[in-house]
Design brief:
By secondary structure, the chain is an alpha/beta fold. Helix content is 63%, strand content 13%. Strands 2-1-3-4-5 form a five-stranded parallel beta sheet, sandwiched between helices. The longest helix has 21 residues. The chain has two domains: 87 residues, Orthogonal Bundle (Methyltransferase, Methionine Synthase (B12-binding Domains), Chain A, domain 1); 125 residues, Cobalamin-binding domain (Rossmann fold, 3-Layer(aba) Sandwich), CATH 3.40.50.280.
Length: 220
């Protein structure tokens, strides 16, 4: 059974990396056929696949067209598996606002994080890139999301995060804010009043789950 399971997970992963929707869908259907754990199959098949795609992009081996095709392949598998997830595994009941700060158009990292939040079961409100300060505040209030994720990839744009964090916290002190991007670190997150910093997409998911669970305990 372990060999069968690992083979299916490998096909999920490689199908995403090779942007082959047909292979991903077939492997996802095999997850159902053999009654494998759906959540584990997502986290050990689709997630490693899209994570490798991000690495290939950063290394210059993949470009935006490949990223988009890989994303389509991942969502093709997710569309097969996710409708059945509630029957087998509890999903994260949380909402997230995510976007790249104004003046910054580098959104590949943000897009990978968004996809992985989708995989984990979060409801994601994606503001896109070059997002004005007030838009983060407005969207959090509109959606009542527990977490706001803010990304910046340039030192010239990252400093605006401090103002965004202050504005959001002033409107709702219970909101948890996570920041990410190449020029950032935990020290800056703490200095600006953010609740967390994620160096990469897998850590972003882990930290978001931790923040949502802690917030539920606080407000229950």
């Amino acid at each position: 059974m372990d060999e069968l399971r690992n083979d299916i997970w490998t096909r999920l992963k490689n199908g995403v990396i090779n942007f082959d929707e047909e292979i991903v869908v077939e492997a996802a259907e095999d997850v159902m056929k053999h009654s494998l754990n759906i959540y584990e199959s997502i986290m050990n098949g689709l997630v490693p696949g899209i994570n490798e795609v991000g690495r290939l992009y950063e290394s210059g081996e993949y470009f935006v067209p490949e990223m988009l095709m890989c994303s389509d392949a991942m969502y093709a598998g997710l569309n097969v598996l996710r409708p059945h997830l509630k029957q087998h595994e509890p999903i994260i009941n949380g909402q997230i606002v995510i976007g790249v700060v104004q003046g910054d158009i580098h959104d590949i990292g943000k897009n990978i994080v968004k996809m992985m939040f989708d995989v984990a079961g979060f409801k994601v409100y994606d503001l896109g890139r070059d997002v004005p300060l007030e838009k983060f505040v407005e969207e959090q209030l509109r959606t009542d999301s527990e977490i706001v994720c803010i990304s910046a990839m340039m030192t010239t744009t990252m400093n605006s995060m401090s103002d965004i964090i202050k504005k959001i916290k002033a409107k709702n002190s219970n909101v948890r804010i996570m920041i990410g991007g190449a020029p950032l670190n935990e020290q800056l997150a703490s200095k600006w009043g953010a609740d967390g910093y994620a160096a990469d997409a897998p850590n972003a998911i882990k930290y978001a789950i931790k923040l949502v669970n802690a917030l539920k305990e606080l407000t229950s």
